[in-house]
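pipeline/complex-builder :: batch 7 item 3
reading input block
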Amino acid sequence: MKNEMIIGMSAVLLGFLAASFSFGADTIKVGIIDTYTGPATAYTFDVLDGFKMAINKVNATGGVLGEKIEFVTRDEKFKPDIGLAMAKELVLKENVDLLMGTINSATALAVSDFAKKEKIPFFVTFSKSDKITGEQGHGYVFQITENTLMAGRAAAFALAKKPFVKYWIAGDDYEYGHAIADGLWTQLKKLKPAVQLLGQSWWKVGETDFTPYITAILAAKPDFIIVATGGSGMVNFQKAAKATGLAQKVPFYQHTAIELSTLEPQGLDAPEGVYGTANYLFYYPDTPENKAFVQEFRKTFNRYPKIGALYGYVTGMLIEKGFAKAGKVDKEKFINAMQGMVIDSPVGKLELRACDHQLMLPMFFGVTKKVPSHPFLIASDIVTIQAKDYMPLCEEIKALRK
Amino acid sequence: MEFLSSICPPEILCQILVGLSRATILFIVASGLTLILGVLRVPNIAHGSLYMIGAFIAFGVSKWFGGGTTGFWMAVVLAPFAVALISLVVERGIFARLYEREHLMLLLLTFSLALILGDLVKMVWGGEYRTVQLPGYFKGPIPVASLPIPIYNLFLVVVGPAVALGLWLLANKTKIGKISRAAAVDREMVGAVGINVSWVFATVFAIGCFLAGMGGALVSPIVNITLGMDHTLIMEAFLIVIIGGLGNVWGALLGALIFGLTQSLGILIWPQFGIVFPYAAVVTVLIFRPTGLLKSTW
């Protein structure tokens, strides 16, 4: 943590330095608003580091259109009002060309609304509200990460092929939990009408002791449990699952259960046999592109890249390729260039869909397993779900935005 | 354990055991809170922060000893003492000067203290997820009437009564216990007979915070040790203290049992709205006994 703190702090300081020493107009300036204090930093520091890696590469080769890409960061402290104030400050005082961030959905929606008014392109890196590109989507907002609806649908796509029939739904009683569960269940019902819902349990956000919930669910004897938790609930639930032996009795699914952010802190104490989905795994796909990305990230930051690193990295690449394709540092030309653009990434070719500005990332579905090569669990039996199989159709987006 | 399932269905038995283990943690924390409230008359909102600090220290100690069995036991033994030491510094430095102030002032003071301690934790340990390793023999479940119960939860069910017994002995068989009970009733009288009330308060405050630290250390292997783990707990602890009767340690025990059991059984009966049950129980108690179930020392 200390290292991450130092990296984070120095990033902030460097950002300030970069801001104060850039007298020439020959830069493309990105304003990053994200949560840089508290538990969310387990995800956000990786976004920042991934982004830095991408733009350092661009700047080392002379930048884009002869201009260097630079950035400033602001800590929104997981508070939407602070985040919005900072977005305004970045645009009005720092004159940033682009906005980027944040892990907080409420902040993302507030900043998105502001970006629309100010006509500033805004890249949403980590928050997963489906409203961002759905009903509140517009021409200036771009979404890198998958959203709750997409995560639920991706899991449904994989689970429909499994033999489970009797399901139980459990989760954090707030928007994220319900959105994932609803997205999953609606799609699963559609793909496999035979599934039954035995019951649901919803606990308050921040619940620390899941044991009574698990024992009660076991008493109902479902075939499979959909667990819709986020943040610290991910690790807490897995700990309780390990203690009660849940994963050996009834398999369960959690979005991002197989992701490094969830598995690394638990070491070898994490439960085996947990199903999960994630946009990025540092060991899969086993391609030269991914290996090169992991190697470079480890060399620079001395740790494995988590999911956020990919988000930050591709954001940097999109910005470079967007301006290169636009041929001019002009926001409207940039947006036109971005629509439908395809870039190479560590996880293969990625398209930025024109109709809703959603990046089409593949989703990996797998199950947790101990391996001798790592001091933490990794995903095995990985199935790749292509973006087209879990993203809402353009017609659906159109209907939502009316 | 098989004979038990003949008297009551396994799932209910299971929920009762899990509920009792939850009640243990709640009782340990709430008893410290109520002790301080009864003797010092300080509604200590920062009590939850000390619980959180206890968990963080337990993590640090466990890691220092390389985790595993030694790490766990050293954490459980040392963390409460460390928290007691911190609380002693806080008491001598701040509270000792402010006992005569009105409750609202004390409330604001402890609230600000909770915010300060929360930020200190953030500065010292940061926001990452952490966990304390359990000894091998506490890992995993044990079947109780065909349903799995984590072994550690059963251990907690044993710890609860032991702590209650310890508190009873402390209050009734030791000098400090007797003096503090007297001080709870009439602090001026205790001072008049030549006892240094200020140090009695300091001792009681440290004991109360020792319990908060102990709760944090005991809970550290089963939860994710992270910022904000104090928020819900302090609220629940206050509710328990209120329904038990302010300042009454046995009331805290009763309150914790009600809270823990209504929660776990509520989850079984109506899983979608399981969180409502303990709060409904609190409301019911307060309607019929507004001053709490047992006699308040206030």
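note: The CA atoms of residues 169 and 177 of chain B lie 8 Å apart.
queue -> next item
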